[in-house]
Fold each of these.
Amino acid sequence: SYYTHKETIRFGTGLLGEHWGIQGRLSNISSKGYIDRASADMGSYFLQGGYFSDNTVVKFVTFNGKEETYHAWNYASKYEQELYGRTFNSCGLYYDEQGNMKYYKDQKDFYHQQHYQLLWDQRLMNHWKLNAGLHYTKGTGYYQQYKYDTKLSKFGLNPNDFHSADGKEVKRTDLINQKWMDNDFYGIVASANYDNKNGLAINIGGGWNRYNGDHFGRLLWIKNFTGNPTDKDYYHNDARKIDGNVYGKVTWEFAKGLSAFVDLQYRHVSLRMNGPMDEWDGDAQLAFNERVRYDFFNPKAGLFYDISDNLKAYGSVAIAHKEPTRNDYEENLGTKLNAEKLTDYELGMKYMSERFSA
């Protein structure tokens, strides 16, 4: 249907020499789409190799995904559907010199993401387990579009760099632009878990992660432009985010059927954003200039009571915090933003039998 197809191939070695193994998968999905020109082409792979024993597992994992889709973001009104049909797609639409409707063939969204992970799980004696992971993710992509009769001021263009057949000042023109993302995400997570098999469990751990994200725009072509549109980015801002945490959790059954838990986490977030945005206030280009730090303490505690095999009750209270997002800063430039804080109270009872649950 609409030239839609999917192919997948999986493979695995089983255990080699009783301890080693490799697994993998390749996939592709493509379609021309129901909406006009709303094509999609997506591919991915997964590959894992590792050492496996009773007490130790070490794995290297890599996987990726890429997608290329034609824009189909705009809705079609009833009026447009009556004129052009139910599958009308206005993305990529422009008019030539004679006023004829045309569609830009490369009105596309492209993104590729690559993951690498090194994972280690270790059992120590009967009560302790350790695990750690290193990870790195690379993402890059853009969306490209034809902008018909758009304002020069949105792209920082100078009217003096244009020639017009009628000699009038140029304030609007056609152009093709790309908006890019180029990001790196990497870090380490680790934990130690203790269980005495007699009602006491302890988990301690933490992680450190860094995200580097560049956002920038490029102009590929500008109608009636006398210069070189690819000389420089028309905006370029970057973000650097460091996120670290440590935590400890204790669960203890201090009486038959009655247990409690306490979970304490400290989290630190450091965020920096710099550079000009793709937004303008009159003739002034807006820019990020943010350096902020957040320190959060997130405690949780609760009780669980197994009244009988069929009836259980619980109660808990938890506090969580969340830092502002990139969009929050973009919409509130120059404003000090507070983190969100949530206090959650829960109380419940659950009954289950062979024929009834509530």
Note: Residues 78-84 form the longest helix (7 residues).
Amino acid sequence: MTERQTLLQTINDPEDIRRLSVAELNSLAEEIREKMIATVSKRGGHLAASLGTVELTLAIHYVFDTPRDLLVWDVGHQAYTHKIITGRRERFDTLRQRGGVSGFPKREESPYDTFNVGHSGTSISAAAGMAEARCLSGKDFRIIAVIGDGAISAGMAFEGLNWTGDRKKNLIIILNDNEMCISPNVGALSSYLNRIMTGQTVNRIRSKVKNFLKSIPGIGGQMLKFSRQLEESLKTFFVPGALFEELGFTYVGPLEGHRLDHLIGNLKNVKTLEGPVLVHVVTQKGKGYRFAEDDPSRFHGIPPFDIETGEAVAAGGAAAPPSYTKVFGSTVVTLAEQDPRVVAITAAMSEGTGLDRFAEKF
């Protein structure tokens, strides 16, 4: 697009996107990705996660009445689209610069940023507190928390799920499942969440089970109990949502995270549900930029880079010097080679802390 006004240039707040058709929203998503890639290539930033949540972000703001409805991001690594469409489009090229747009949600920056974040696993607890405050004040707006598949295994996230499921307040949690946090997940919950199937397959299985149960004539008390046990057993085997339903949530999904028509339709239905709801959305980290798709870990937090090659560059276009993280990682490997007592501990991000080589070697 050259001299004529782009679709993105007409978007100043979410009210503008609510007037668009799904086809126009799809075009807007591509323009947002182009702007995001162009900006981060110059400024550095958290690219891969935000590329993966473009459609999801548009769908949330399209369906819900933000900022009256509160949207809580976890960490904020995936919130660049949110910033672009909430009044910060023209300033987005100041990302992570002194006096510019913050790399994370920041209440001082916009009424659409409801919670200052910088650490993972906090969105559910924060949203749960907001839900309690809403009920105490007699208001009825919606609260939506977005959390990733890596962050949901955090202890604070479990506490938030436990509290929310028990209190039965209206609260929507969206699990953004890109099957790839900063480093591969470990642990029992991760293995459980990774049993992902397409939404179409899951719904077909649910439908067949329901039709089969309905076809059994004269179901008595015991048979009814058995049929429910059968349904739950099949659900546990086929659907990743049984855990959340046991915690008191209505589980919806998995949904295709890059199909705006599906996302919008399902979120409209979710908006009418009462009580705590967990919406499971499957996305692709780095979506729309092949280097980020192929190597999402490197493009999780990336310094300035060349768009054509995906390689990091320094000021003036020169090759970037080795980062502090890389120097640290090499040094720790050297020390461990000299002293077998050296042990490395990483906060679930071996590449981000430079300890991936250590993990591979030792």
Note: Confidence is low (pLDDT under 50) at residues 190-202, 232-238.
Amino acid sequence: SGYLTMSKKVFQFEKLFAKFVGTKYAVAVNSGTSALEISLRALNVEGKSIIVPTNTFVATPMAVLHAGAKVIFADISEKTLSIQAKEIEKKITKDTAGIILVHIGGIISDEWSKIKKICTKKKIFILEDAAHAHGSKINNKFAGNLGIAAAFSFYPTKVLTTGEGGMITTNEKKLYQKFLILRDHGKKNPLLNIHTELGSNWRLSEIQGLLGVEQVKKAKNIISQRTKIASLYDKILKNTPNIRLLKIPSHIKSSYYKYIIFVNKNIRDKVKRIMYKKFKISLPGEVYNF
């Protein structure tokens, strides 16, 4: 195309991803963290507070802080590993602008309808941290099409990957237009060096755009394979002593970014040692917690 960044492949990636999750708009950016920060900046959260679950990667609260807001942590449900509806009600104050709902491991909280009612009543927004949830659904509606906007990550470990990269999805035209301006140093017109917003370099390259196009084309197959593997784990691990599986309700479909089990800490550490000692397989991942 003659371009190395922000051209045909990036735009094609955006269109395909918007169609994939069922939103009107998608904006490609350089990381999932950027996707969160841009969304929060566009929602004018500076000087306000945002409710964030205690179980999430550090990028979630960091994005809130970088957007100029205050983080209010709320406890999670042991059943869903997502923010609890009752905890949201406790944490809402006069300066609360919204909440970030994190779909841990690709699982959307079965308290979604309760959370939505609370936020509608209190007039605060829901921003999805869908970094784990490419292709996840609740009541046949995709993650990324539930709140006012959503942030996805395409880091190497994610369900869909472009090496590095992110995407913001929304159905709100004004937010979409603001996202476009913020990701390119605050330029209202990308062809002119006239800056109307305090943006930054959050652009995506054409190479990553190309990778994204091919990943979205294969998304259904990728998710299908992950689901099959998860089903196999369900059968093998069912009724295993000292292990509890995370039950996912039938109306929720996970893309299985992670396969989550609950084990005693001593057993977990023992398994990690054996895997490394015998097979040289390192298991560094731990559940996020604040």
Note: The longest helix spans residues 219-237.
